[in-house]
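Escalation from tier 1.

The customer reports that the assembly of two entities below gives different structure tokens on two consecutive runs. Tier 1 could not reproduce it. I'm attaching the input and our single run for tier 2 to review.
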Amino acid sequence: MITITVEDRNGETRDIELPTDVNLNLMEALKASEYNILATCGGMALCATCHVQVLEGMEKLSPAEDAELDMLDTLFDADADSRLACQLRINEAMDGLKVKIRGDEH
Amino acid sequence: MIKTDICIIGAGPVGLFTVFEAGLLKMRCHLIDALPQIGGQLSEIYPQKPIYDIPGYPEIKAQELVDNLMDQIKPFDPTFTLGERVENLEKQEDGSYIVKTSDGTQVHCQVVAIAGGLGCFEPRKPEIEGLEDFEGKGVAYMVKNPETYRDKKVILAGGGDSALDWTIYLADVAERVTLIHRGDTFRGAPDSAEKVFELAKEGRINLILQSNISSISGNGHLKNVSVLGKDKESRELEADYLIPLFGLSPKLGPLANWGLNIDKNAIEVNTFDYSTNVERIYAIGDINTYPGKLKLILCGFHEAALMVQSAFKYVYPDQKLSFKYTTVYGVNAF
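Tier 1 run:
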């Protein structure tokens, strides 16, 4: 298990514990933790609705591939610390990560 | 007024397949979609992605599935209203409905089938104070008629394909085109990006990189746009039009106000026939919810088949429904 700190759109912060052995990505894990994430495309890096801002621990993440960077480019509120949660597969190295949810709400 | 038996809201795969199942029971369908093309998110978001869980197709590209569905429903001659959002449903005295769209189209039907997926795709609006006050007064989120911009000062904002494509197109139409982009590269379409950099080098467009729009102003109509660079340098631009192009995102939209039971942005249905709490209104595909719901295209197809069996009694109240296999009776075109 690892612990990730999540700040929601209202600024509320809580720690969530995630298993590393069930092949989840961060978008799926956030949805499973009852966060309101649209995930229109289901996790193909094609809609950018699972946009998160990495507040701490960017170095823990594998670098973004072109498809993810393309999608981030289409957003007005993305920055150097932006990632798409669907492209981040939960693993041990992500323990202690802190993210803020930025993607579209319904 | 358009007259039909079943008005289907949403022209994605589930909405399209509903036409087939309804057609087998001799019920006609009209489809309405907020997007300008059919196919829903399959065509809008991932046309070239392979899908692996459509029965009978080990692998099929999303757009191919849409094309195949169009072939499959052709015998039943469906009609379409595209690029319009359904605003409200008006119940008539005899129980039937009139469906009204954002552009004033009216459809009279016996049954409404909501196959709206995740909702209507609407343009993402950047957070700029007062932006909505200038909508229709200089601010637009899509280019409907390029001639609007002839000999005008136009500012586009965004870094995706549509921002690049419209910058290139409008460079020949507008008096002055300015493209503002948050980053310093465009990764989406290398050819378009190269062309934009070329136009900027030739001085035919203004290209402002690493910058965001900080504020807009005008007196009744947009006049000025302020841009703030990452280097904290601020500049004022004169503008007749501002077109922010930051992609589309689905919103539940007006259907949230139709008196339907909604749970977490999905419509609650009875799994007996996928009816909602309002008589003659059904909800199928990703837009509905029930215990055990899975958002899969194949589940939506199943829901469509059961739904039309139930809808039959409203379209043909005096007839008894008899179930017939296509293998025995074939597909009898209208």
